[in-house]
Every structure is written in structure tokens, then in C-alpha cells.
Design a protein that fits this description.
Layout: H1 4-13, E1 18-21, H2 27-39, E2 43-46, H3 50-56, E3 64-67, H4 70-83, E4 88-90
Parallel strand pairs: 1-2
Antiparallel strand pairs: 1-3, 2-4
Helix pairs in contact: 1-2
Length: 92
């Protein structure tokens, strides 16, 4: 689920399992999204840039992408924390 607004909606609904926030996301995006992810104890990582996130899902540059599949979320979190130098991965 691409885009900050959709990720926030999914987080509030309890539908998102993991979120990737672009390292170069705007401060406004981070101010709205990060406290919500922490409050809801949603696993998340700050990694990649907006262009890379958008390309990964076939879209224009994105500030955040939410993963709703539990298995995909687990695998992606593992890959990012183990393979992305400088990635900030937070569980809960």
C-alpha cells in the first residue's frame, strides 16, 4: 500500500504489518507517520529514498510504503535490517 496517507489509514485500522519510510521523506511526513507507528507498535524501517520506494512498487516517488502481508512483512524487515547499511529498523 503506497503513500503516506494510505499507510496512516492502514495503521489506524490495524491492517499494516511493516512500513518502510523513505530516508529522504519530508519532515512533515515523518512527523505524522513515525509517532503513529510507534504508538501502534508497528514494525518499521527508515531506509532507501523516495525514488527507490516508488520504483519498487511501480509508482512515482513515495514517502512510505506499507506491507499488509505478515509473511512478506517478516521477510522484508529481515532483509532491510540485515542488508541495508545504515537502515534504522524498529520493531514496535
Amino acid at each position: 500500500m503506497p503513500g503516506t496517507a494510505r499507510v496512516r489509514e492502514a495503521a489506524r485500522a490495524g491492517a499494516v504489518r511493516f512500513v518502510v519510510v523513505a530516508a529522504d521523506a519530508s519532515s512533515n511526513t515523518k512527523e505524522k507517520l513515525m509517532p503513529l507507528l510507534r504508538a501502534r507498535r508497528i514494525r518499521h524501517a527508515v531506509a532507501f529514498d523516495r525514488d527507490a520506494l516508488g520504483m519498487a512498487v511501480g509508482r512515482a516517488p513515495l514517502g512510505a510504503v506499507g506491507i499488509t502481508s505478515g509473511r512478506l512483512a517478516d521477510r522484508l524487515a529481515e532483509m532491510i535490517s540485515g542488508g541495508q547499511e545504515g537502515a534504522d529498523t524498529t520493531v514496535g
